[in-house]
Amino acid sequence: MHYSNFGLANTKTLLKRALQNGYAVPAFNFYNMETLDAILTAARITQSPIILAVSEAALEYMSGDILMGMIRGAKYEPGQIALHLDHGHSFEICKYAANIGFSSVMFDGSTLPLEQNISESRKIADYVHKFDISLETELGVLSGIEDENTKSETHSYTNPDIVKSFVKQTQTDSLAVAIGTSHGAYKRKSEKESLRFDILKQIADNIPKVPLVLHGASNIPQKYIKQINKFGGNIKNARGISPSQIRRAISLHITKVNVETDSRLAFTAAIRKTLSTNPSVFNPRDYLSNAKDEMVKNCIDEIQNIMGSGYKF
Fold first, then answer.
1. By the 8 A CB rule, do 203 and 158 touch?
2. Cβ-Cβ contacts under 8 Å for 148 (sequence gap 6 or more)
3. How far is CA 241 from CA 7, 137, 139, 244, in A?
4. Mind listing the domains of the chain with CATH numbers?
5. How far apart are CA 4 and CA 211, in angstroms?
6. How far apart (Å, rounded) are the C-alpha atoms in residues 215 and 181?
7. Which residue from 87, 183, 182, 100 is spatially nearest to 136, judged by alpha carbons?
């Protein structure tokens, strides 16, 4: 079924507007009804455009039928929300997502040889563009672990000298770049580490009309780390990307910022606190509702204080 039947927008439309007006559209990952509702509640409150991101692993976890059933029943303004496959690793998974109602797909060929990345990206572009579905691709490799399908122990920066040719050959609608971010909760060894803004500026100068995407950009709020550890968790030395660095990246044509770990931390911190302080609780609605509320707060904070996308829809 085509995404327009669900009132969804493609990311090409959302990111073009963001590029013109100097803000970023947040891409928040979700996994179930509560995390989906948290993101959409934040979107309604802030009147922000939102990209609902679903990884291959999350798509398998929820199943396409259940996922699209939740989308059909969700509340949002037509044209405000995009549904995006995050880190698709094959033509088949991108085709599947496009066919069930996704409005945007990402093909992650970043670990492939360059020519193979180009050829596979173009193959997917030719397919999804027939249905006005957006394509995001990636150049450069982010280290860290997002889930069982997306992980790497190595890192390589995006080469600014090849981005123009890559975009032309692949016909991609947006480009994810590697400038020092990483997946997971352990993004930096010290607070002194900085993103490579020099590389980002060269990329933006070389392809000024192409929306750029920043993966692995959670800021890892320390209040959630402390709360998780206080109530039985064991997360040590977790550091994220500071809001000031993300805002600077947005000023250099980053128009989509992926946020997953922050949402996981907010959700988990609330569950741990509820179960630890109320040991008699066993109804999932009780602790899941608190977790959803905390995730709403975090999404609103990032929309308003990092992305600058509030009241842009």
1. yes
2. 57
3. 33, 22, 20, 8
4. 3-307 (3.20.20.70)
5. 22
6. 7
7. 87
Query: Is 136 in a helix, a strand, or coil?
Result: strand
pLDDT digits (tens, 9 = 90+) for 33-44: 999 999 999 999
H or E, element range at 298: helix 284-302
Q: Which residues are catalytic?
A: 86
C-alpha torsion angle, residues 118, 15, 250, 260 (rounded to 10):
-80
Query: Which is more confident, 141 or 306?
Result: 306
**Low-confidence winner among 138-142, 231-235, 270-274 (lowest mean pLDDT):** 138-142
Q: Is residue 174 within 8 Å of residue 138, measured between CB atoms?
A: no
Q: Residue 244: pLDDT above 50?
A: yes
- Strand, helix or coil at 267? helix
CA 31 to chain centre: 13
CA atoms of 27 and 217, how far apart (whole Å): 10
The pLDDT tens digits of the residues spanning 5-45 come to 999 999 999 999 999 999 999 999 999 999 999 999 999 99
